[in-house]
Structures
1.
Amino acid sequence: MTHNHAFPAGGEPTWPTGFRGYTGHGGLRDSGDDISIVASDRPATSAAVFTRSLFAGPAVLLSRKHAAGRGLRAVTTLAQNANVATGRRGEENAAEVVRRVAGILGVPEGEVLIGSTGVIGRPLPMSTILPHFDRTAERGLAAFTAAPRDVARAMMTTDTRPKTASRTVGRARLVAVAKGVGMLEPDMATMLAYVFTDAALSPADLDTALRGAVDRTFNCLSVDTDTSTSDTVAVIANGAAGPVDPALFAEALADLCLDLTLQLASDGEGATKLLRVTVGGARDHAQAKRVAKSVVNSPLVKTAVHGADPNWGRVLMAIGKCTDETDIDPARVTVKFGDTEVYPEEPEVDTLGQLVDLMRGDEVDIAVTLGIGTGEATVYGCDLSADYIRVNADYTS
Amino acid sequence: MTHNHAFPAGGEPTWPTGFRGYTGHGGLRDSGDDISIVASDRPATSAAVFTRSLFAGPAVLLSRKHAAGRGLRAVTTLAQNANVATGRRGEENAAEVVRRVAGILGVPEGEVLIGSTGVIGRPLPMSTILPHFDRTAERGLAAFTAAPRDVARAMMTTDTRPKTASRTVGRARLVAVAKGVGMLEPDMATMLAYVFTDAALSPADLDTALRGAVDRTFNCLSVDTDTSTSDTVAVIANGAAGPVDPALFAEALADLCLDLTLQLASDGEGATKLLRVTVGGARDHAQAKRVAKSVVNSPLVKTAVHGADPNWGRVLMAIGKCTDETDIDPARVTVKFGDTEVYPEEPEVDTLGQLVDLMRGDEVDIAVTLGIGTGEATVYGCDLSADYIRVNADYTS
């Protein structure tokens, strides 16, 4: 029903019917585009989820208010600066950016979502941002020539590559752009990910599809346990391709979000490989997810995966530290790396050699069963490398 | 009342009256002593706390049983191998080690505590351990010539230095040995830390003093969020110096445990500096500790501290991700690095320069106030460096 390659030529996706993109340099970083806008040329329905961080920034607070109208039709993103913990001035600046974007597009401010990620606690450089919007306003819609990949690139902070994905459902297309590599343990929502579709869907169907997809994709992703103050996921549907079956749409959306999740995990700060942990036989999905997250987040598991060190005991340690899960009985737990059982069946010395080979791959799969019930969850993360330290020990200045 | 330097010469501590130490090489590592014993020559009272890990190993399970008698008088430690997830054979091996040690000392097995840390999932090398005990048995107590520092060294795994500490209370002394640098977020108890004293104390007083001390010291320590399967803290009091005031003893014990906690944090795997986070104005102590742990454990805070990067926004992020603490209001939060407020009073550019200087020190203090109540907690951790990755990406093999 859904197709991974919406564009037979294998090239990068173009926007769905009725959407257009813009990128420009507003002085948020030294060089390269750092401001982006994606807009629908007609009214749209929308759904969005946001970070639960107590320190959610003005961009999130304002966008949450606008998203409540379920009629977003444009998204603007400022890269490199989260505009968080910037006081009253930060709120005014976020509102001014939205005002400018709405003006350029000729739409109500309430139909614009604003995303902002990057350094916390630094005022936005309005002295360069406002002149930038003045120039863009003069050019008008003629300035909207950016492809999805251009927008994804303009949203990047420490990402090493732009992230896009697309799917088709009937005659409709879904095209998504995302960013996020660190401060990345989405909770309720995630980093920045925007999905644009020309399908026609009610806000309620969009909302159901989005929450269902986010719960099993972005919310199952953790690079470093640090939940961002700026996480935002939104889907905007302008209906240009007509109605589609909501169930098929939900399936395509979940598939597309998983695609982005894997891209985000693989490009985790310093990551050299994808780590996928599945826990089955749990009391319920929530327990499976808690245990899987404990494994995927354990620095000792992550470093072992990085070093292709078959130190499988660290997986038991990570399960064992879930001390609230009192129904877990070590005697009923099993652990596999790929297809190789390491517990309770102790691997022989030559099996350890196979484990090393397996762990040298680009993707490492760890499967745990708890022997309690039928709950299952898969979470996505990455290894922990010295590059994570390098990237993060010297980021603000 | 308590003195930091029990030994005026400034040298390493010797055992309290009636205790003696032994170390030897039992083939657990390639070279260097890896087996140690500390024993009282007379009956003693004791208290102990253990890991809450669901995968607690045979050493912990057996020791927990013996500790229940509150009359431990000896501790033996095997380094380099945790003897965890080793099945029935692991249980038999732990029991056999205790049997041998009890035999050498001529005491009941139930008075011996066994500690084991290191790799998980590897059987103990009994083919070299048993002959080692045979040889030690022949030498008898004459083999007990090890000082506290020797014992602490024989307990090390990836520790870079042995950890000892001592205090005096009246005529009594307290001498402690400890190990632990990674897989270190003690929960209910901690890594291995043993305190020996010639004070005379009831088991109940010992237990109260130990639990009070552990709660505010070892349990406030986190190197990497990974709770060990082997954590054990025990105090053994043989009474040779006569009775002491229990309150003074408790104070000295807490002070000594704090000393060890700071040593453990500073020697955290790859650590180059101590990170101390104090949260005040919380609803209660428990809330303060949860928020402080969120800050001390944040990989982004730890890497910023490592790089002396004044990226104070990451502290707000780490507070913000405590999404269960719904009474935290960002408008009432304050954050200081050392004496320098960074939130809500935004630091000027030259203040950021001061922050960098401050963060280049061996100890970095972050103080948060929540403006809710009077609860307070201080937690101890360390920075996250590329050496943590190096140490852990290649540890088992």
2.
Amino acid sequence: MTGSLRVVGLGPGPAAWLTPEASQALALASDIVGYHAYLARLNGAPGQTLHGSDNGDELTRARLALGLAAQGAAVAVVSGGDPGVFAMAAAVFEAIEAGPTAWRLLDVCVLPGVTAMLAAAARLGAPLGNDFCALNLSDNLKPWATIEKRLTHAAQADFVIALYNPASKARPAQVHQAFELLRRHRSGQCVVAFARAVGRPGEELVVTSLEQADPALADMQTLVLIGASSTRCIERPGGKKWVYSPRRLEPAP
Amino acid sequence: MTGSLRVVGLGPGPAAWLTPEASQALALASDIVGYHAYLARLNGAPGQTLHGSDNGDELTRARLALGLAAQGAAVAVVSGGDPGVFAMAAAVFEAIEAGPTAWRLLDVCVLPGVTAMLAAAARLGAPLGNDFCALNLSDNLKPWATIEKRLTHAAQADFVIALYNPASKARPAQVHQAFELLRRHRSGQCVVAFARAVGRPGEELVVTSLEQADPALADMQTLVLIGASSTRCIERPGGKKWVYSPRRLEPAP
């Protein structure tokens, strides 16, 4: 088989956050497979075929990409952010494992990118400067009980918590439940940030406290960051405050 | 004040993983501050001053960078990977908070990058395809008891765990203690990967199980990944196996 599959992360939005490796893979692809909103970001090269599809159904998209590669095409399948974080890479390997043995011989590479929490953190300051976790709040593919268990441990461990996919039109209530749970385990003074559409039109940052936070601020384009007990704000005369998590932690009292 | 400070992530190594934003900031800087091994990766531009220093003492480096920016210089301070993850960004904000009020007026931006765990994950397949945490195993700046507590919660939450700074010449024993702790909470069949120097000379990947893993494989250049119970390997005829964490999780029995 001479085809290839590159699983490419486009980063959170602007071309300035797309790695040269990803740019090159996109330029060399004969076929690009992805959610149509991601394909709309690309400048297709002459002779390239774009295979756009709706959001969701990552497995169908992965199978399409693998099938094209197995036929000899140079395929790129794209994700926003990093393809390995709650995105297309896992779907591709699920499809390979369940698919024809021949797919295991394919030349498949995952090309890393800047994931949403890194971009959001950079805009805010350095909230991920100490231990953190990343949790996908969607229960489309896992039980809500698993999410609650993980959230509870994350809160008790005093991790900084990055919540991906905090809410959607179909799941408006869960981010409220998540905040209720967090408020039982963390101080009301804990720093919370809503980072919406970072790097894209409509970018908005809200820095608040767990006590004051309105979970309704979170939508499909929002990354929610819950600070650890050590996470701090730096006030700035006339400017937006910075949020950071110091590297040094004192022993618990 | 007309100076500026850009906190720049170089990515794990190769230029192909350096974002265009970071490249541009490095090209425009009058002064670049960083650990000399990172500065050695750069092609300095004419007229640029490189301020190299030994590893450690990030706070001194941050103060140097802030002082130069306050004097009007266009400063870039560099980290490997992403500057917000266990790297220079937190040190810069610590220095600002403790420093002269004037530093709060400076034009400071953090530019995100590809952090080590994303690069390691991409090489392995998609081990971060489900919920995960990132834990800095160094106790230089935090109590070992805090690390043990976080590791225990992470293991109980069934997060995929990325261990940064698992070992150094001064701390050879802690990664062994961490594995002992993990073995008490996780099945011996749990997938473990040692990803050494990903993207740099000497890159090496070892995929094994928690039972079989030799913690002595971890050094300063290694990122250790501990899979969740759901993390799987795909065997490939004649090839390296892929590691991935499926997006779908079944309810606990």
